[in-house]
Amino acid sequence: MNDLKLYCDTQKLASLRGFLNNTLQQTNLNEIEIHQLILAVEEVCANMIIHSHSCDPDTYINLKTEINDNTIIFEIKDMGKGFNLLEYQEPELDEVVKTKRKGGLGIMLVKKIMDKIEFESNGVKNTCRLIKELKSK
Amino acid sequence: MLKIENIDQTDHMVLQLSGEIDASNSVDLDAAIQDMISRGAKKILVDGSQLEYISSAGLGVFMSYLEEFHEKDIQIVIYGLLEKVHQVFVILGLDKLITIKNNQQDALEAML
Questions:
Q1: For the whole model, what pTM was predicted?
Q2: Pairing assessment for the beta strands B13-21 and B43-54 based on DSSP bridges
Q3: What is the model's pLDDT at position A34?
Q4: What is the pLDDT of residue A135?
Q5: Concatenated DSSP letters for A83-109?
Q6: Cβ contact A105–B61 (<8 Å)
Q7: N-term to C-term CA, chain A
Q8: Which residues from B are below 8 Å from A36, CB to CB?
Q9: pLDDT tens digit string along A62-118?
């Protein structure tokens, strides 16, 4: 199990990618699959950093990765208002183009890449779990 | 790390992207595209052969200009993407909205 304390600064996203890459090298996923998982986890973290924490570098989120035989679980915890991915209604692509909005694509990517997303919050502490099922060999 | 280089050719402009685009630097991509539009670009070739990573922040920049490109009759083609990066465009269906070619030759031909 690997943990990362990520301070809420978008400049830290590169180190998040480095951490995830090191962790995922322990699996037998190929380069493209690893790339997509890194992307999905980063999208969620970037969202939290920007929208839940307003890029306040004194605050942080915690990421824990758990690699099992059949699944990889990314558990992201933070304190604060929380961002529930499951309730977020992502826009249609043509709406993104028409309204020239720059957001919305990230959550779309996460939902397409991950097999399962869980979110729980007690109002203070939020936990988001991203689950990827591994193909059995 | 992201490096953006702009190369003006006689009838088109090349935007060379090297490194990684994420939420920390997507504004630089935005500024580079804005600059090309303001300089009157009509054909933009994006060299993505050294682009190692692009998150939704960068993809969103391209998407946000599609209407303007259309209105101003600006052609844009992305070429040379690494397969792992190309797949990200495919996952979102962006390859249906923006022309993506294997190499510069194909990209230039797509603009004729």
A1: 0.94
A2: parallel
A3: 97
A4: 78
A5: --GGG--PPPHHHHHHHT---SHHHHH
A6: no
A7: 22
A8: 84, 87-88, 91
A9: 999 999 999 999 999 999 888 888 888 778 888 888 877 667 799 999 999 999 999
Q: Is B11 exposed, middle or buried (0-12, 13-18, 19+ CB in 10 A)?
A: exposed
From the list B71, B64, B68, B97, the residue with the least C-alpha distance to A97 is B64
Identity of the residue numbered B84? K
* Best mutation target, A29, A39, A48, to test chain B (most B CBs within 10 A): A39
- Give the pLDDT band (50/70/90) at residue A137: low
The mean pLDDT of A112-133, rounded to a whole number, is: 95
Calculate ∠ Cα A47-A49-A52, nearest 5°: 80
| CATH number of the domain encompassing residue A16 | 3.30.565.10
Amino acid at A21: N
Contacts of residue B44, Cβ cutoff 8 Å, sequence gap at least 6: B12, B13, B14, B15, B33, B36, B74, B75, B76, B77
The architecture (CATH level 2) of B2-110 comes to 2-Layer Sandwich (3.30)
Q: Quote the minimal CA–CA distance from A73 to chain B in Å.
A: 21
Residue A48's domain spans which residues? 2-133
A17, A42, A97 ranked by CB distance to B97: nearest: A97
State both tokens at B74. Answer: 């600006």
